[in-house]
């Protein structure tokens, strides 16, 4: 898959494309159907397949005070799209100036003039242009004018409710991570590098990996979670604490993961953690001995949940 950023759009000289368009935060099961449709149309019409997305997420630019974070990083998005056999990933830088652009100008100057779009696939709630003033009807009308086809994909539902990035972000932020897998088609996964912490876990007999995240992920509510750690293409069980460790005096937010059955020195290494099950809220323990006993219980429960 070739990745092309908006600063390079004017130099693009590729063949006609079937293009999926959207923010695609999470690339959940609904998004995947749109992408698969673009791939199928590309094969049917002898086009290349492409996806046009936006970075940063429009919500982070237009509503930063209401932003919970993103479900996947740009790096993760590229990895997933490569597995889905997309030919081109077009990444449009999203700025306030770009957001003020008229939807018809966007279609003419970007989709038609630069990206050689032959067919477009979007979700039924797709909107674009200044203030979201353009919708699928406008897109179809412009398709007739400029000669590209438009396919509108209906929403994919789970439990009678539409699968959406907003729904997934809310579930994660409320700690209901066990419900997310059926919407994403995989576990929610945060990635980062292991950095030095306060050494508290090691002093208790449970050395932890302190995770410095690679992007502004949506965070699960504070507490302890059972989940999977991915390190160098190996998977381990792990118990992670998200929060401020109220037993100690430090009030700094941290993500501390005790990785079961891994004794390697992994400082400065990249790992990922997928919270699978919320175990308990954070608690201020009266003594280190009480905390150690609770950690032992958390580890036993983690093994039970994941194995």
Notes on the protein architecture:
By secondary structure, the chain is of the alpha/beta class. The protein folds into two domains: 2-162, 3-Layer(aba) Sandwich (Rossmann fold), CATH 3.40.50; 189-306, Elongation Factor Tu (Ef-tu), domain 3, CATH 2.40.30.30. It has helices spanning 29-45, 58-62, 74-83, 96-99, 103-112, 136-146, 165-173, 181-184, 200-204, 288-306; strands at 2-5, 17-21, 48-55, 88-93, 117-123, 127-128, 134-135, 149-153, 157-158, 161-162, 190-195, 209-213, 223-231, 234-243, 254-259, 270-280. The strands form four sheets. The protein has a six-stranded parallel beta sheet with strand order 1-4-3-2-5-8, with helices on both faces. The longest helix is centred in the last third of the chain and has 19 residues, at 288-306. The radius of gyration is 22 Å and the shape is elongated. It starts with a strand and ends with a helix.
What's the short version?
The protein is of the alpha/beta class and 307 residues long. The chain has ten helices and 16 strands. The chain folds into two domains: 2-162, HUPs (Rossmann fold, 3-Layer(aba) Sandwich); 189-306, Beta Barrel (Elongation Factor Tu (Ef-tu), domain 3).
């Amino acid at each position: 898959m070739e990745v092309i950023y908006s600063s390079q759009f004017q130099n693009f000289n590729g063949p006609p494309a079937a293009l999926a368009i959207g923010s695609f935060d999470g690339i959940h099961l609904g998004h995947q159907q749109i992408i698969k449709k673009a791939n199928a149309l590309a094969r049917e019409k002898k086009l290349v397949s492409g996806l046009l997305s936006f970075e940063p997420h429009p919500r982070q630019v237009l509503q930063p005070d209401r932003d919970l974070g993103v479900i996947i990083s740009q790096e993760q998005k590229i990895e997933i799209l490569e597995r889905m056999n997309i030919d081109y990933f077009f990444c449009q830088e999203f700025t306030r100036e770009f957001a003020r652009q008229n939807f018809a100008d966007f279609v003419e100057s970007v989709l038609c003039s630069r990206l050689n779009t032959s067919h477009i696939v979007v979700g039924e709630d797709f909107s674009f242009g200044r203030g979201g003033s353009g919708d699928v009807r406008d897109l179809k009308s412009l398709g007739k004018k400029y000669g590209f086809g438009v396919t509108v994909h209906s929403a994919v539902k789970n439990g009678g409710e539409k699968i959406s990035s907003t729904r997934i972000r809310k579930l994660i932020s409320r700690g209901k991570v066990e419900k997310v897998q059926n919407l994403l088609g995989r576990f929610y996964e945060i990635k980062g590098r292991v950095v030095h912490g306060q050494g508290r876990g090691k002093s208790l007999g449970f050395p932890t990996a302190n995770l410095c995240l690679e992007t502004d992920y949506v965070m699960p509510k504070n507490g302890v979670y059972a989940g999977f750690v991915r390190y160098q293409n190996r998977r381990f069980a792990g118990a992670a604490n998200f929060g401020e460790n109220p037993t100690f005096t430090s009030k700094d937010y941290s993500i501390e993961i005790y990785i079961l059955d891994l004794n390697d020195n992994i400082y400065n290494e990249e790992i990922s953690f997928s919270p699978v099950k919320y175990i308990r809220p954070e608690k201020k323990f009266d003594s280190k001995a009480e905390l150690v006993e609770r950690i032992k219980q958390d580890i036993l429960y983690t093994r039970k949940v994941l194995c």
